[in-house]
Amino acid sequence: MNYQTKKSSLFLKKISRATTTFTQIWQVRNLWVLLVGAFLMMACDDPEEIGTELFGQDIGLAYTDTLTVDASTIQLDSMQTSGIPSVFVGSMSHPVFGDYTAKTFFQVTNIDTIKIDTAGTSAYKASLVESVDSLALYLVFRRVAGDTNKTQTFKVHRVKSSATPTVSKVYNTGDVLPDYDATPLATVTRSPLHPIRNATSTSEDTSKYSYVKVPLPMSLAKEIFAQRNLSSANAVVYDKFKDIIKGLVLVSESSQNAALSYFSVGQSMMDLSYHYTYTYRKTTGVDTTVSVNKTTSFYLSNGTAATGEQNVRWTNVTVNRKGALANLKKPADALKSTDAGGYVYMDNISGLAVKLKFPTLLNLKNNKNVAINKAELILEPDQPLSGFTRISNLVAIQENGANRPLRYTSTNGFVYANSETQISSYATKANSYTFNVTSALQNILSGKATANGWILTPTWIGLTSSTSTSVSVLSSSRIVAVEPVQAVFNAKNIKLKVYYTHISK
């Protein structure tokens, strides 16, 4: 093994052992001269003609994990709660994130009419007796955030006739619910809450999840039953039904440190049970009595976008923040980690996200040409706080310079921060989220990217890519409060690891 080979081998071993910033510089002039000389002898050219001065420069490989990462908690805009798989209610007090209170509005509609079917017997009908039996709301649990051992009292209110909710509007956590009657239609207390029959089930929206049954008054049942026997052309379904029952508001009263209950809009429903009997005389002169028991179901998630017959639903959330987070009062407010005990926070209910900047990144250049070989952004979270679940996936999007997500002009969608790893999944063994940010950092160093601020949030929407450019954007411009997840990061455990090549100018 010659001298140069031994030196290169030692250099590579040093890189593999590196844990902090170092730079290994070596001269390669003699090696390059030999190679170039051999090439020139074969080419019969004058070496002066190809610029051998280029090979006299210092070339180095380097690694660093000590670049400064400025971390802040920012308040995003109000989170969208219309059109998501859940409605949620309740109250929960959290020592870090504050006091949450949630109440929800939803509509129910039927697909089938309330039918009294005596088809084929009308010519001989002698009598018909109809009666409504019950009306009940079944709220199927999807998940719960908080203490399920605490008592919760659920109340259902009827929305006033003046309410005008519309499917054409996007509703957020900050939108006030429609006016509703102060006196509830029904009240049910669960003590303790204990929402899930099979805690080992990994699937949401299944029959393995229990429900809250809320019996509704017979007066409302009779009002709805009065819509029976209409012809199919005048069937009281979809929007026609919503003209009669504008909607319902669900609230939950509990101790402040109890729980938020998430109910599935795909499985929850309202059932109207009724029966009827009729007697008819056959052609033989014999009277026959028929008894029928039926149930008509009214669904929270119903209709199609094409017909505009979708139900309106959304959850209103208020948060009374505590401690340092109380400084986040409005969208785009920011709280530096240094002002929050060294920590930053994510919360998918009230819209807290983490903003990162890399103020010393450009120092890598140091009057050199720099090429990023590989770069990783690694975040190690603390253990989830009580009442929340761990975030499964994080998304990194670009920041617009004013603590808001950067939007792509033609689609208004949010722009991903990088192209290699757009969504990072939590790695249990390593206790970390890792983003490959090689091209993103190279774009900053080369000046192609004018800003180096990124916003990290839980994933809430899917990915699509522009067909006219290489820009990858999120398919929606809305931020959705899908589930009660959170993350707490010690800013010291957020690292930018960079492997790069540099050539002195």
UniProtKB/TrEMBL annotation:
Sorted alphabetically, which Pfam families does this protein's record hold?
Answer: DUF4270 (PF14092)
Q: What InterPro entries is this protein classified in? A: DUF4270 (IPR025366)
What superkingdom heads the lineage?
Answer: Bacteria
Q: What is this protein called?
A: DUF4270 family protein
Lineage, broadest ranks = Bacteria, Pseudomonadati, Bacteroidota, Cytophagia, Cytophagales
